[in-house]
Amino acid sequence: MKEQYKITGMTCASCAMSIESHLKPQNGITEVAVNYPNKSVAITYNKDLISLKEIAKKVKEIGFTLLIGSPEKTKTEFENVEKKRLKTLTYKLIFAAVFAIPVFILSMFLKDLIPYQNYVLLILSLPVLFYSGAEFYSIAWKRLQQLSTNMDTLVALSTGIAFLFSVFNTVNPNYFLSKGLSPHVYYESAVIIITLILLGRFFEEKAKSKTSSAIKKLMGLQPKKVTAIRNGEEKIISYDDILIGELIILKPGDKIPVDGKVKKGTSFIDESMISGEPIPVEKTKGSKVFAGTINQKGSLRIIANKIGNDTLLSQIIKLVEEAQSTKPAIQKMADKIAGIFVPVVISLAVITFIIWYVLAPELILTYGLLTPITVLIIACPCALGLATPTALMVGIGKGAQQGILIKDAQALETAYKIDTLILDKTGTITQGKPKVTDVIWEDNSASTTLEQIILAIEAQSEHPIAAAIVQDLKQKNTENIITIDAFKSSTGLGAEAMYNDTFYKIGNESFMLKNNITIPDDLSKKANYLKEEAKTVVYISKAEKVVGIMAVADSIKETSIIAIDKLTQMGVQIYMLTGDNEQTAKAIAQKVGIQNFKANVLPSEKGVFVKELQEKGKVVAMAGDGINDSHALAQADVGIAMASGTDIAMDSAGITLMHSDLKQISKAIQLSKATLKTIKQNLFWAFIYNMIAIPIAAGILYPINGFLLNPMIAGAAMSLSSISVLANSLRLKNITIN
Fold it and tell me: Whose CA is closest to 2, among 35, 29, 39?
């Protein structure tokens, strides 16, 4: 089983590593991926070997809470816990500031102003450490019991040592005075560090809530109340009470609560939130509508076909959440570094103390203690841990708003590397719906009656081409008022029927020749010309002679040519694979500007072709919409499915294009490029920050110019580094992709 759960109690990126490292060795658990910004964990486990309650117990052992239960229950519980946590954090921050500010002022500017000043500082510092900062020490203690560390360990060690050293000098100042040294106290460092870190976490929590705003916006598209018809009466019911098959009334401006079909009415629906297209779509009787879209001016009555978690909107929300919890290679690398970072920093702090002890023993009791504390504070791995997941969350959310649904973060990381794109023809380059393109009659004066006869015959056929002809004739307002007799269908050839004692046949050329029907030379030449354009020709005969022809073709999407041209300019080599014949494939490829194509390709051969290109060192993307594309979509480095296609195609792909528009592929590549650029910027600054800050904190500049970094400034710098990473990630929201 693979499930995603919310976790409470995480305070930094290394908490995520602690959970992963603690759960992965457990028997029955095969994969664990913790998303710190999203406060969630994706766990793959064998329920026969380990139960969910046992997993929750293991999480509890290291000080965190795994929320289990129904999605609705855990969602509500998590939101309540997070609200309470933010509220408590706010109170603790205010409380810390109230006591820390006078400690800071007395220590820095008003030394020896009042009698027993150090005792006053001690009393003022106690509430900050043991109320506002209590969580740092309790979590650090739990980590120690599990022989692990995190950011709280650094804070607890640095502030704890500073406080205990100060208490010793307050209670027993004569010890250092007897040695000719001043008994310095560092209460201000301890309390200001805690206050600054709490302030940093407060801003961090606020910023993180913005990174997942795409999910919240999608969730906000679900209305709380809807109007339904029950027992013949209009009733306002809760969204959660909607039943399948229920008749829902939509007024202008209403959000559509379910996936369904229009039963009555005409309106335009704003589907931009799922397709990325700003132009409203006209809906009439029989049209499909989707949850989360917005009704415009007209009124509709719709039948609910899918409700709750089964709607397209709910599936999008679920997939986006899952994508935000998956980890690309660059994130796994950062996690490993963050996981070993805290022990390394503690070791560096010890080494710093030893160096001061050896090189400057006369300063060991002042600077020798101060510098390790500063090292512990400034070397926070939070910025490193936040660098990748925050950028991914914003990038995936941006994609969702553009109609690019990213199911797997690995696909987002890989997309910018794509150098080869394979396109399926039907439903990807073309509409996937055959339409009548040409109608030619030998005698136009008889066309009206012939069209009525054709409609009567083809209305009884189930062939896709027959459906296209029926749709075309209905659009011409042709009425089905003719009664035919002796209808007969010949599979793969055509159909025939009698009207007014005359036989009429509709079908392909073989059908006509088989029945010894004469095809006039003029119509035969025009038919051959249409075939060269990759169109399917349907012959219409009256008695023993063909009297007209119709050409049916799967039209190319309006945006396909533009999209393929843009992708080619981006340096992407494009192949078209199709099961169609060589003539049709060549005609379509030439029209859209594709140089490389393969015809008569079986579904299994598509996956093999992808593998052949990969073996040549190509980074291959595959775009398709059908079951026949699923193998190739799964085999490709990046699988891209059309939302208009089959469910199995979307399950096999890492990216789904909600509007089935090939222009979205270039957008996905641009989004990938921008996201990876942001991640690399974040990682660069996180690394540079620590590479520069740690040596300065250790006192490397002291022999040169006597400079030592104050622990308070170190705390501020640490908080600022995390906030800067979050701010840089949030810039992705404003990028333009076209």
Answer: 29
CA pair distance 691, 35, nearest whole angstrom: 26
pLDDT in tens, 203-222: 666 655 554 544 555 566 66
Look at the chain and report how many structural domains it folds into. Answer: 3
| Sign of the alpha-carbon torsion through 695, 701, 703, 708 | negative
Cα–Cα distance for residue pair 154/158, rounded to 1 Å = 6
Contacts 24+ apart (CB under 8 A), 469-477: 469/436, 469/538, 469/550, 469/552, 471/435, 471/436, 472/435, 472/436, 476/451
* Sign of the alpha-carbon dihedral angle for 575, 577, 580, 581: positive
In the structure encoding, which two tokens stand for residue 688, read together?
């540079």
Tell me, yes or no, whether 547 and 603 share the same domain. Answer: no
- Give 454-513 pLDDT, tens digit per residue: 988 888 876 667 878 888 888 886 676 788 888 888 766 788 999 888 999 998 888 899
Residues 644 and 502 in one domain: no
Instruction: Tell me 502's DSSP state.
Output: E
Phi, psi of 382 (to 5 degrees): -60, -45
| pLDDT score at 196 | 72
The last residue of one of the domains, among 673, 695, 721, is 673
Place of tokens 């990028």: 735
524/580 same-domain check: no
Sheet holding 620-624, edge to edge: 404-406, 655-657, 638-642, 620-624, 420-424, 573-577, 596-598
What does DSSP assign to residue 256? P
Last residue of a domain, one of 505, 540, 555: 555
Residue at token pair 């089983």: 1
On whether residue 42 sits in a domain, the answer given is: no
Which residues on neighbouring strands pair with residue 132, listed in sequence order? none
Which residues form the catalytic set? Answer: 424
pTM given for the model: 0.57
Same domain, 593 and 492: no
Let me know: does 270 contact 256? Beta carbons within 8 Å: no
Got the DSSP string for 231-253?
TTEEEEEEGGG--TT-EEEE-TT
Residue span of the structural domain in which 264 resides:
221-316
Instruction: Report d(CA 473, CA 481) in Å as an integer.
Output: 13
Looking at residue 432, the DSSP 8-state letter turns out to be E
- Report whether 628 contacts 612 (CB < 8 A): no
